[in-house]
Amino acid sequence: MSDMTIAPRRRSRFGLYFVPVLVLIAAVAWTGFWFYAASQVGVQADAWRAQEAKAGRDYDCGNRSVAGYPFRLEIRCEDPSVMLVSQTASPQTAFVARLAEILVVAQIYDPKLVIAEFKAPATLAEHGAPPSLSINWSKGRSSVVGLPAVPQRASLVFDDLAIDRIGGATPAPVARAGHVELHGRQVDGPTPDNPAIETVLQIAGGTLQDVHPLLTQPFNADIHARLNGLKDFSPKPWPQRFREIQAAGGSIEIMQSRIEQGDLLSVAAGTLRLNANGRIDGELQMTVAGLERVIPALGIDKMLDEGVPQATLDRVAPGVKSQDISNLFGALDRALPGLGKAIKQNANAGLTAGINSLGTDAVLEGKKARSFPLRFADGAVLLGPLKVGQIPPLF
Which residues of 303-333 are buried (b: 16+ CB within 10 A; e: fewer)? Predict the structure, then answer.
């Protein structure tokens, strides 16, 4: 039998090259898809800007760039601005807000989740005028779920927020907060075609100047609210949206409000509505611990001793004239020397007793407290017969 040599069969190299070629094709396809998606950013942004402009919000971007390949879309906008027209009850007023930079990030495989970071500072000015407010923060960010359709959830967070009034010799503080969070989400309403929006506002270490004496000292706030009556989510000016909410019988339900300031603790709940004049009506049931701290902060005794300005009287006691009060205390001093002064010095005690008579005893987180109603009538905020604030109309 003769020797025979059988040549080995040559193995196919198809399997060796198949996977790398497949990966290369996928990479090329993904690259093409990413660049196509990046090219659509400008198209979608321009369409969104046109839609917002119809609602009185005209956005602009000084310099826009797109990055983030391969798995993200990062849209960076330098020197962004927005002109706000017809966003208040005075339609002739227009404001311009400017920001240093906005970075918007979306995962290419989950474009409905958008995360944004804001770079300080920002300014706010009336159209055609120099900036009147300056806003700074150490970290500002937001997230939105549900785009490009109606958002399902949204959040806005700022750290070390500082708002100052500028234009004078030195900036004047308007507001401060160590931390601010605002969250909102759609929830089921009374009917399927009438959804509601739940919101949560949290403020840590906040102060407000020129609003109320109590708010000039640091406070913490945690407010849960529910907005009913918002049926149309299409972009539109806020006064128009508020008018539609009022026409639909909508309301703002304060489910829980907790404000803490040192030894002062306040909780409240109730329902507020808009009347036909665009002003707020309703009532909040409040429970306050440390009420004795509130009255001195109002400065009633100092105000009486120095003379009550008519503007202040118009705010807290409409119809009463400043001269009438001065004449009254003068007459009391003439009838019985020292009587007018004694009444002034005991004004806080008298006001405390008057407010105590409005409510009932309560206990709040283990502290002695007082429960009483806080009424809103045509925008006026009333604590019993005392007017403690005025909210401007919303449309």
Answer: bbeeebeeeebeebeeeeeeeebeeebeebe
Which of 231, 215, 150 lies closest to 185 in space, CA to CA? 150
Tokens of residue 164, six digits: 């100052």
Q: Which amino acid is it at 209? A: Q
Find all residues with CB under 8 Å of 350, minimum gap 6, and list them: 343
CA distance linking residue 151 with residue 154, whole number of Å: 7
* pLDDT single digits (tens) 272-329: 999 999 999 999 999 999 877 766 665 555 555 554 454 554 544 444 444 544 544 4
Structure tokens at 386: 């005392």
Residue 195: name the closest of 269, 246, 257, 245 by CA. 245
Positive or negative, the CA dihedral 261, 263, 267, 272 is negative
How many residues are there in the chain?
A: 395
Q: 278's torsion region: left (phi>0), alpha (psi -120 to 50) or beta? A: left
CA distances from 14 to 17, 19, 187 (A): 5, 9, 56
d(CA 178, CA 205) in angstroms, rounded, equals 5
Q: Decide: 177 and 205 in contact? Cβ < 8 Å.
A: yes
Contact of 371 with 359, CB cutoff 8 Å: yes
CA atoms of 121 and 138, how far apart (whole Å): 9
Task: Check the CA dihedral 225-229-234-235 and report its sign.
Answer: negative
- One-letter amino acid for residue 155 of the chain: S
| pLDDT value of residue 115 | 94
What gap in Å lies between CA 20 and CA 149, rounded to an integer? 39
| CB-CB contact of 237 with 86 (8 Å) | yes
Residue 121: count of CB within 10 angstroms of its CB: 14
Token pair in block for residue 69? 């390949």
Q: What is the pTM of this model?
A: 0.80
CA 29: distance to chain centroid?
43
Pairing type for strands 57-67 and 72-85 reads antiparallel
Say how far apart CA 340 and CA 307 lie, in whole Å: 12
DSSP state of 364: E
What does residue 356 show for φ and ψ, rounded to 5 degrees?
A: -60, -35
Measured CA to CA, the distance from residue 378 to residue 280 in angstroms comes to 6
Greatest extent of the chain over all pairs of C-alpha atoms, in Å: 150
46, 52 contact by CB (below 8 A): no
